[in-house]
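Quick note —
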Amino acid sequence: MMKINVDGASRGNPGKAGWGAIFRNSRNEVCLTVCKGMGIASNFMSELQGIVESIDMGLARGWDSLVVESDSKAAVQALQKNEVPWQFSTSWRKIMQRVKETLLETIWREGNFAADIAAKRGAGLLDTIMTSWEGRPPWLDRVESPDEVYFRFSNM
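Predicted structure written out below.
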């Protein structure tokens, strides 16, 4: 089982966009970190592209049992309902035929900070440029831990 935390980022909506993903194994070890630039896109499209492409990357590495977490409720719901924009419909359909087991769920932004850092780096890249690291890159100081509690505060 491989866990993928994914996030999209856009500097403006639409604006210069990208996505980032952190792949971790069952021991919470970072196996792969990816950042990709998208050119001009909306937040929603960067979230969707990040989820679709990161699952595809995992499958290409032989990781066919995946838990995918994103802080974009809209993107996760669109994929769960197969109501994806036409740009992703063919690739999403092909991915779903290849995957053995996938759990796609939302997570609070506070529990997705490592992917958020990677996504912001992706938004700084040129369109279609991707950088990846086997393991944890030197610029990623820490990742989420299942043994830690992350708080979300709100003003009521």
